[in-house]
C-alpha cells in the first residue's frame, strides 16, 4: 500500500494593494504550479530528474492577519533580529505582541511562512523565498 507524504504548508500573509506582496503571490503560485506539474510527470520517470525539481507544497494565501499564536510562532522563526521586519516598530517579542494586539496593521506584509520546517521570510526577497521553497524536503 502506498501512503503519500503530507505536503508542507506554505502560507503567504498577503496585502492585495501592495506591489511587493503581489510579486510574492505570483512567485509562489508559479512555484507551486511548476512543482505539482513536474511531480506528476516525473513520478513514472527516473529519480535523477526528481532531484532537480522543487518539492510540491500546499500554498495558502490569506489577507487575514495571523492569530496571536501564529504570530508568536513566526517571531520564533525569524528570531530577535527579524522581529522589526514582522511588526513595525517592535524590538522584542513582548513589544511585538503588544503592538500587534493594539493594531493588526503593525503586521508587515508580505510574510511567507513554511510551517512544517520552521522558517519565515518578511518582504519580497525573491532569492530568499526560492531558497526556502527549494529547501522543502523531497517526497
TrEMBL record:
Chief location: mitochondrion
Cellular component GO terms held in the UniProt record: mitochondrion
Listed Pfam families: DUF1687
SUPFAM superfamilies documented for this protein: Thioredoxin-like (SSF52833)
Residue numbers spanned by region Disordered: 35-65
Membrane-spanning segments: none
Subcellular localization: Mitochondrion
Homology family: Belongs to the FMP46 family.
Name assigned to this protein: Thioredoxin-like protein
Source species of the chain: Podospora appendiculata
Source lineage: Eukaryota, Fungi, Dikarya, Ascomycota, Pezizomycotina
Amino acid at each position: 500500500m502506498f501512503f503519500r507524504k503530507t505536503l508542507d504548508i506554505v502560507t503567504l500573509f498577503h496585502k492585495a494593494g501592495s506591489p511587493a506582496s503581489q510579486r510574492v503571490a505570483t512567485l509562489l503560485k508559479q512555484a507551486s504550479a511548476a512543482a505539482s506539474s513536474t511531480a506528476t510527470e516525473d513520478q513514472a520517470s527516473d529519480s535523477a530528474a526528481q532531484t532537480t525539481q522543487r518539492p510540491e507544497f500546499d500554498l495558502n494565501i490569506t489577507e487575514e492577519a495571523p492569530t496571536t499564536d501564529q504570530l508568536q510562532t513566526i517571531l520564533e522563526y525569524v528570531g530577535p533580529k527579524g522581529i522589526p521586519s514582522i511588526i513595525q516598530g517592535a524590538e522584542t517579542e513582548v513589544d511585538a505582541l503588544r503592538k500587534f494586539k493594539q493594531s493588526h496593521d503593525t503586521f508587515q506584509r508580505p510574510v511567507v511562512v513554511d510551517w512544517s520546517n520552521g522558517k519565515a521570510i518578511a518582504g519580497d526577497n525573491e532569492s530568499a523565498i526560492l531558497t526556502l521553497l527549494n529547501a522543502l524536503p523531497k517526497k
